Batch of 2 targets.
Target 1
Amino acid sequence: MAISAEEMDIDVLAAAERFESEGLTVTEKDEMMCVFQWNGMETTLYRQGKVMFFPLEDKQLCIRYATEILEPLLPSDRGGPETTV
């Protein structure tokens, strides 16, 4: 499991919609967590910014993958993608 160094409050339902729009299979979602298939792994995203990958055991790879998943979910002032109105 990778845990964000910064305190986060992710809108997990909005994240689930984003994952589905990207073609990922979401198997479970509620206000606290979202379970989806990513790179052949069962992946769980928690509201606090924790990400768990099953069956991944490589800590460095876990951190890299979690960063790939979390960065697009962050507002642009916290490292996420720039948004335009």
Target 2
Amino acid sequence: MDLSENTLVLLRDEAYVFLCREALEQQLAELDREKQAIVDTRPPFGVFARKETREAFTRSLQMANETEAALRDRVDQLKRLDDWIKPKLHDAIAAYLEAASPEYGFFASMRQVFAAWRTDFAPLPELATAFAREVKGYRELVAETKSSAKRQVEALAHLRNAAVRLETQAEHLCVLARDLASFAGEDTEIARDLRLPTLPNFHRVAWVGRLALLPAESCIRESTLVENEARAFVAAGTGGIEARLEASETAAALHRERFLESYWTQLRAYAQTNYVEERDVDSVLAELAQRYVQGNIAERQADLSRDVFEGER
């Protein structure tokens, strides 16, 4: 997939801005040395120096100051143009990478992954509370020496139903975590930075089946541990969960931007070598001002006119 014509134009214009600024900075550095040389020729006795000498010194220093002011004005104009170009170029490169680079596309899609994780996580505390309640109810029946087998089976059915709902919801989150881990692969930095929150073991459907076969003492001990784990998860709240998600979202954005900047650096170096030719700074300024300043003003003016027209209808 090739870069669009608009992106190539932006890269070329960015290259012209960089090279023109570089040339101007070099001229300013040279001018600074010339000014110092002029200052060194200052007449030693001020008003007692010859008039011609004083006037020659003043003219030389004034001309140097005027040249410096003109050069710095051009540098400021180029900086402002750079501020117009870079956001547009950033967005153009981002759009290209989203379509052409699976790796960049992964980082760009992480917002949807984290949003999906939040959505799937939302009912989990309530499901864990219901599961813990059913675990407690079954344990209390087991502890009753006179509870009937029928009541225990009914309690187990309720417990298993709660376990199925909890495990199904937890599995949705596990799928997202596995997909994330699969992409990170051997890249330890990405694996470290893009982590989803760690959850308790909520795959409890098979455990419920084993629970029914345990002796009463073992059943009571194990069910107490599982209930406490579920209740501790609920009591901990979502603060830590949200903090982990936000940290991963920030890391994904940083990795995405780092990837884009790396590719942009390669494009920039190529553009500075291949997309430009030797040109006068003022001609570059005039062309870019027409394209980015006047062009954007005209575009915005058209938008305002359209808004007014639509408002009057």
